[in-house]
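Hi R.,

Here's the chain you asked about this morning:
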Amino acid sequence: MRNYTTEAEPTTRVEPWLEPLLPELIDFRRDLHAHPELSFKEFRTTDKLASRLEAAGLKPRRLEGTGLTVDVGEGPIATALRGDIDALPIIEETGLEFASKNHGVTHACGHDVHTTTMLGIALVLQRMHEASPLGGTVRIIFQPAEETMPGGAHACIEQGVLEGVPRILALHCDPRIEVGKIGTRIGAITSASDTIKIELSGRGGHTSRPHLTEELVFALAQIAINVPAVLSRRVDVRSGVSVVWGHISAGAAPNAIPASGYMAGTMRCLDRDAWHSAGRILDEVVQQIAAPYGVDVHLEHTRGVPPVVNSEHETALIEASARAEIGESSVVLTPQSMGGEDFAWFLADLPGAMMRLGTKTPGGEEYDLHRGDYILDERALGLGIRVLTAAALRTLRDIGQQ
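And here is the predicted structure, written out as tokens:
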């Protein structure tokens, strides 16, 4: 196995192959941004990708519903690359000329860049292959529905996208990192994430006589406060278990105890093993906390995704590619995110790594993901294509030397 941490030999530069394609790819990304589509509804996006890939002489394979894959080259698969294609149910507030035309839906997480990056890699590799055979195959996966739980990765895997694949790489936009740099880390780079929905029901009544009711609002409050507290004592604190509520609702009048209430939130965890144990404990704790108040509890606990755990070898592969393609100082250590990512399911049985692609304009405003006003520096698009194309070329070269 090649040691990418010490590699210094020259490699093919991607930039000259990408340069004539970049204006078209920027337009493609802007078109996607203007026409975002929610999870499992990415029909237009899938059609546009298929049409452009076919125009380049490639043969994409559509997945059931939405999404597709395409193989570039011939021979054994050297690596797979994955990009997610869905948008979020968020109102766009950027004021861009190419802002979302689909009200209430926007690419506030950078998936339009992820999608276009993978398209650009396919087009660059195809041009290289036409000029001189690549000596192997790169599989590119355009995955639907990353923004749902437990995510569209399962559907892709069930349809065989990983058959014959030895490793898989991906990227994610990061507005905290300046454009021109990528963030990496060995080990967990994201966290596990579950969705929790709880409905309580009981006898309502007058607030002057709570003893004649199941005091539902008080029970909701106890669950909201004590579930995070109890979990912090029953799961190793180093695992970073975090339960945060995003929605609590009950009642309409100040002097009436309601008969039903609802709350929802997420549970996140830095450690895969602790995620499994915390999930089992969570269900038990909710029931125990609610029990003294006599309310009926309906708990919907959706197991989401485990952490994305980057392998050492594939992380070194990305870092070596970035340093060779965009500069020695282009790689920074990124902290583990508390966000969830269903790329983790691709890594359940394969080595691989996800890199953070810097999208912050130096000296510009700092954004966060999932914000309606998130504006990224478009120079990041070309840099992402260059780094992951260079990484794919290294894996192809490894095949030729076996």
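One quick note: The two ends are 10 Å apart (CA to CA).

Cheers,
M.
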